[in-house]
Amino acid sequence: MKRYAVMTLKGGTGKTTTAVNLAHGLSLSGKRVLLIDCDPQRSVSTTFGVSSDKGLDVLLLSGDVEILHVRDNLYIIDSGGRGLAEAEMKLAAVKDRKKRLFEALRYLKGTDYVICDCSPSINLINMNALYFADEVIIPVSMDYLSEVGADQTLGIIEEVKGLMGGDPSFMLLATFYDARTRMSRVVLNELRSKFADRIFQTIIRVNSAIREAPGQNKTIFEHAPLSRGAFDYYRLTEEVLALDKLDD
Length: 248
Ligand SMILES: Nc1ncnc2c1ncn2[C@@H]1O[C@H](COP(=O)(O)OP(=O)(O)OP(=O)(O)O)[C@@H](O)[C@H]1O
Ligand SMILES: [Mg+2]
What we know:
Elements: E1 2-6, H1 15-28, E2 33-38, H2 43-48, H3 56-62, E3 68-71, E4 74-77, H4 82-91, H5 100-104, E5 113-118, H6 124-132, E6 135-141, H7 144-164, E7 169-177, H8 182-195, E8 199-205, H9 208-212, H10 220-223, H11 228-247
Parallel strand pairs: 1-5, 1-6, 2-4, 2-5, 6-7, 7-8
Antiparallel strand pairs: 3-4
Helix pairs in contact: 1-11, 3-4
The chain binds adenosine-5'-triphosphate (ATP) and magnesium ion.
Residues 11-17, 39, 43, 119-120, 175-176, 204, 206-207, 210-211, 214 line the site of adenosine-5'-triphosphate.
């Protein structure tokens, strides 16, 4: 089982979009995927038009959970919305509070991929996701502040490794790429020279179909399968599958 967290400290860089479409891409290729909404904003659950009163909040506190079956091979754990923020406060007093997610899913079977969609913050829920994950995908939109956010996120990953002995590796993903703007080209070049093979070859381009899809409760593969967005997320899925094969 491969465990991914999609995370960066900068908001609006395409974390949820990436978590949702990568999860669906992998499930379409025959893998069994569990997508965990780790954000009180509930963006993953909203995208699929589902919710549960036994979400991640309940899982972290009591170990109980409802796993929602949303598509062939694709399952979801709802975040619990505000309940997740409340759970975070309660967890603060609990021993091993940063390892709750790892412990709760320790014996999960029959799943090829678990993908956590994180909020853009430093909090206990994200610490749990980082401790749980083998790999962190850091979406970087093509602007200066997003680059800074990626650097800050890498700092947190290092801290987590030091603090808890977890060992997630990371991959950057260029998002919101617009070939018409100089900024996109400059930021992408900088990232590629700085991170070399730690950045996906796949680039996610700006595409209006990506923005429309959640409003239809659809992924990009359902909403606009012939769009640029579907092509880019298809390529990302293929790249993740190829990288995971190398690891095996
Ligand atoms: N490649 C893209 N082209 C156009 N719009 C996009 C693209 N990727 C994401 N969007 C849109 O941009 C907005 C922010 O994306 P998303 O919700 O995935 O970001 P996020 O990083 O999860 O945000 P947050 O930090 O709030 O969790 C959404 O409306 C989404 O549909
Ligand atoms: Mg999000």
